[in-house]
Amino acid sequence: MPFLQSLKDYAKRHRKGLMVTAAIGGGSYLLGRYATEKLRDFQEKTMTERVAKENLKRRFQQNQNDCVFTVLSLLPTLGDQILNEMNIEAVWAKLQEARKAERLEQKRLREQAAAEAEAAKAAAEAAAASTTTTATEEEENEKEKESTTATKEQDQHVDESKEKGEDASTQKPLDESVSSLGASVGSLGTSIQSEGGSSPVTPGLLDKDEKYKLWEEIKMKSFTRSLTSIYSLTLLTLLTHLQLNLLGRFTYVWSVSVLNRSEPTIRLQHADEEPEGGFLDPQTERMFLSASWWLLHRGWRLCAKRVEEAVEDVVSGLPLKRILTHEDAENLISKLRRRVEYERDGISPVSCRSWMLPETDEEIQEFLMQAGFAEKYPENEATLQLKKLLDETKDYIDSPDFTAVLGSCLDEVFAIFDHHAFAKALLPGAGPMDLSGQRIQEINDNEVVEVTKKVTLANLLPAIGRQAHLAISGNEYLNAFAYIKELQAFSAMIYTQYGEEITQA
């Protein structure tokens, strides 16, 4: 009891201190618990954000890879039409056949000239032989005349008359033989000439005017086809990025809306499930992806028409024998690009929207029918959603950001075009292109800068026309888009620009 009493007395005496100590201890405990919970919440939030960012990054990167494969699958459809309608190889084949025909004709003329020379030589030898025979006969006749002068004087008249008769009889057949030989030689020469004149002309020969027209056709089609292929490839790539990033945004927002808080798993919607808020009907997705049919079958022809007009204005006046340097070639392409990409004033950019997507309801209905959809536009929910997607895509196409991205993409692909079409022929020291974006290179003072070569325009046409095949094959030209930072930023902006999707989710 004394111990307990002493404790009570101690508590009474130090009541205030004990209360402060208890308050401090309890507050410290509660504060520790609060800090621990906040730290745990912060860690969980950080982990969730990191997982969400990694998920978004993974999905975005997969979406960009899908864009590349989608463009690769569509390029054969586009390439077959461009190569068939601008068939430069057929014109080259005509010129090659004309060259072969010229070589055959030259060979025939040489053989004919050699035959005529042999005939003339034979005629000359025959004439020389006939002249020698006539001279021998005359010498023998003279000797006979001298022998008859020793006869008697009374028989001289008789002998002379006989000699005259013999001379006449011998001279007549000689003259007839010489004349007949000359006639045969003349007839031989005439027959040779008649054979040469009546011999058929080698098929495939072209005159100068026909060759000039073929070369002009090659010149115009080479520029038109290659530039059309480059512009069509660029527009198709940008349209595919717009489509897949818009659809990818819907899919990502819907997947996040159904994310399980306890376990971060994502459930994707199947085709047989009903669409929920923030997610598109699979039928609408297929129709929206099929909108590229317009560019593949109609839009590229509109682009080709404008390119053809630009080539007609800029290239048609250039002679085939015009000597070009690399600087001249760059200026030529710059003029062509300005004529295609800008209006007549040179300031306002040309709108590519009508090349990429259908404008009117009739055009939308046409691409739906051609793509295999039986829906009437716009009458049901799927086509109404399609209209919203098309309108949003057109808004992006009309934006200044799209114009800037299009310019950056064209700069990149035309740099590849310049390297293959001009630099290899006009700059002997041009090495392979670096597509990684590293444009700055160290220059060594000891290195000797090679002088630019000069080549005629006609010699550059094969390399220019070949760029259409390289662009449509999708190798170096298509790979260049993966290194364009402006395109990646534009795709990320579309993918992460959440609007109504979050509200509906």
TrEMBL record:
Gene Ontology CC annotations of this record: peroxisomal membrane
Region (Disordered): 115-206
Residue stretches of biased makeup (Basic and acidic residues): 142-175
Biased composition (Polar residues): 192-201
First and last residue of the signal peptide: none
GO BP, sorted A to Z: protein import into peroxisome membrane
Listed Pfam families: Peroxin-3
PANTHER family: PEROXISOMAL BIOGENESIS FACTOR 3 (PTHR28080)
Official protein name in the record: Peroxin-3
Species of the source: Lichtheimia ornata
